Amino acid sequence: MFLGEYAHTLDTKGRLTIPVKFREALAGGGVVTRGYDKNLYLYTRAAFEQLTERLRVLSTTDPNHRALLRLQFSGASEADVDAQGRILVPSFLREYAALNGECLVVGVGDYVEIWSRAGWDEQLAIINNAGLNAERFADIKLVE
Question: What CATH number is attached to the domain comprising 36?
Answer without folding.
Answer: 3.40.1550.20
